Amino acid sequence: MKKLLAIIVSITMFSPLVLGARIKDLAEIQGVRDNRILGYGLVVGLNGTGDKAGSEFTIRSLANMLKNMGIVVDPDLLKVKNVAAVVVSASMPPFAKSGQRLDCTISSIGDATSLAGGTLISTPLYGPDGKVYAMAQGPVSVGGFAVSGESGTGVTKNFPTAGKVPNGAVLERSLDFKFDNNEIKLLLDNPDFTTAHRLAKSINSYVGTSVAHAKDISTVTVNIPKKYEKKVVDFISMIERIDVTPDSRAKVIVNERTGTVVMGKDVRISTVAIAHGNLSIKITEAPKVSQPTPFSTGRTVVTPRTGVRVAEGGRNLVVLPRGATIGDLVSALNAIGVSPRDLIVILQAIKAAGALHAELEII
Question: Which residues pair with 325 in a beta bridge?
């Protein structure tokens, strides 16, 4: 426990005061983003691990596929244990061009037990506008397995009902996006007024003229200089390498399931007194058995013996002065010997008392 708190103190107290980050890592350019595409398809060639006979949509899909190939089959006569209905999804990168290949994710939507060894047949992938942007096809790679016996017992590793088709989607349509030659907009990943102001100031200082303006808490507008109007990519490459010191609100993140506590350096605490003690109750059962002598007519007697011991840990009262930092808090709590879960309870109590000047977020 002391080692854990010592690590927290070293991180919070001895870290550099200036932590710069590239604009590339702090903001995104408006319009430059991934685009999701989605489709419905069939995985064939499964070894009896496909959808069961009750999966009506799988049967109908298989019948329609065969009909498009010129084979008319009564759906009621089809067996689909080697076929599984799946959803196919992929992500198109910015400025994607026709002919590029993408990885696609395959997820079963029926009651198939495994997609291992299956092959995705040609599946169109649609965008939000209803247009086909890619065609997906290929062998499915599954990072797991499911094996079962006739009695119903079995072994399953990971999630065999989901997998990937590496480079399985081929783009059929390019994404039309062009930069505005007059300005670009930077969108902060973590909106903050101070960070937006610093970002605009750093760009203006680097370029040498007032081209950047913080429009709101999350948007910085950058006017493109005339000499870069036809070289927008070069201009973006130049400014995204500029270092900016980001700012954020004081926050304490608490995970009660794992006992993890993460606190920022800007957390401040008003004058507060902390007392921490543990009350432990230990109950032991030690029955006494009395047996009769051999060949006697007596009987065995069991006498229960219960021991109860109560111990209350004596802890000192710790007073933190006004304006104490997170390092002072951790050092004080380390002095009275608290565990990570006790630290969570203490932080919640300090917040309830109005002495913790930070946002307490429980995840």
Answer: 268
CA neighbor of 135 nearest in space, from 94, 95, 178, 90: 90
Q: Which residues contact 59 (CB under 8 A, 6 or more apart)?
A: 53, 75, 78, 80
Rounded distance, CA 297 to CA 12, Å?
75
Those residues whose C-beta lies under 8 Å from the C-beta of residue 295, and which sit 6 or more positions away, are none
Taking the C-alpha atoms of residue 332 and residue 80, their distance in angstroms, rounded to an integer, is 66
Classify residue 82 as exposed, middle or buried by CB count within 10 Å of its CB (0-12, 13-18, 19+).
middle
Phi, psi of 19 (to 5 degrees): -120, 90
pLDDT digits (tens, 9 = 90+) for 272-328: 777 666 544 454 556 676 777 776 666 776 676 656 564 555 555 566 666 666 667
Q: Where are the domains of the chain?
A: 20-31+178-244, 35-171, 251-283+309-362
pTM summary value: 0.66
Q: Does domain 20-31+178-244 have CATH number 3.30.1360?
A: yes
Q: How confident is the model over 9-46, as pLDDT tens digits? A: 444 444 444 457 899 999 999 888 889 999 999 999 99
